[in-house]
TrEMBL record:
It comes from Arenicella chitinivorans. This is ABC-type transport auxiliary lipoprotein component domain-containing protein. PROSITE patterns: PROKAR_LIPOPROTEIN.
Length: 236
């Protein structure tokens, strides 16, 4: 594979951050009935259904020793995937890095993208949960990404841009329908046009891909850390 050099200076500033939800302490479930033999109650989770809400709040998620993670990207930005072979390689590279990090966990036997044919246009939680179950995935990692440029810096120097990319992700336990982990990772960077760049827009997009790759790596690290601590399903 060709190594792609991008003519930019990427400076990751103080705005770069990854914030994940904190796992419940083991003491949270002490002395409480947290698992239900018949599973969680079906139906609406809100309104007057107090039993459903209490079950959701008290349920203790347990996972098998080895798990499959289905991955689903919710945003539609394809980052110029078909603009050139370079962009196709960059897209494929960042996806493969995410999968490799997840598969490296001792608690994960597979991490793969959820087949598109299983996902309907209505992407509600029950629909996504069923699609992941048909894929025999224990967990569903859904994420969306967005990148924005600060317009102020283009007025100061038309050949320089300051931007940020943010990824929001949730990890869903398919068995219970509970979101067991949420993570937001943001990478901030500056780009400068070089003489070898075709145009500045292409330069910015390549920099955005690198920022997205770093943010996805941060997401994967948070998921792996969670997997290492989540209780295992005990066999009867």
């Amino acid at each position: 594979m060709r190594v792609i050099y991008v003519g930019i200076a990427c400076l990751f500033l103080q705005a770069c951050a990854t914030v994940g939800s904190v796992d419940r302490p083991k003491s949270y479930h002490q002395g409480a009935v947290t698992n239900f033999n018949d599973g969680l109650v079906e139906g609406a989770a809100f309104g007057d259904d107090g039993k459903k809400i209490n079950e959701l709040l008290n349920y203790q998620v347990t996972l098998p020793e080895k798990n499959r993670i289905a991955i689903l990207k919710l945003s539609t930005d394809n980052y110029w995937r078909f603009y050139s072979n370079d962009f196709t390689q960059l897209n494929d590279s960042l996806v493969q890095r995410l999968i490799n990090k997840l598969r490296a966990s001792d608690r994960v036997y597979d991490a793969s993208f959820l087949p598109a044919m299983l996902v309907s246009e209505k992407r509600s939680l029950p629909v996504l949960r069923e699609a992941a179950a048909r894929f025999q995935a224990d967990l569903l990692l859904a994420y969306r990404s967005s990148c924005q440029s600060y317009q102020k810096y283009r007025f100061i120097d038309p050949n320089e841009s300051k931007s940020y990319c943010s990824i929001e992700a949730v990890l869903l336990d398919v068995r219970s329908g509970i979101i067991v982990k949420s993570v937001v990772s943001t990478e901030d960077f500056t780009t400068k046009k070089s003489s070898g760049d075709t145009n500045f827009s292409e330069t910015i997009k390549k920099a955005e891909l690198e920022a997205v790759a770093k943010a996805l790596g941060n997401i994967a690290n948070e998921v792996v850390a969670f997997m290492n601590n989540v209780p295992r399903i005990t066999k009867p």
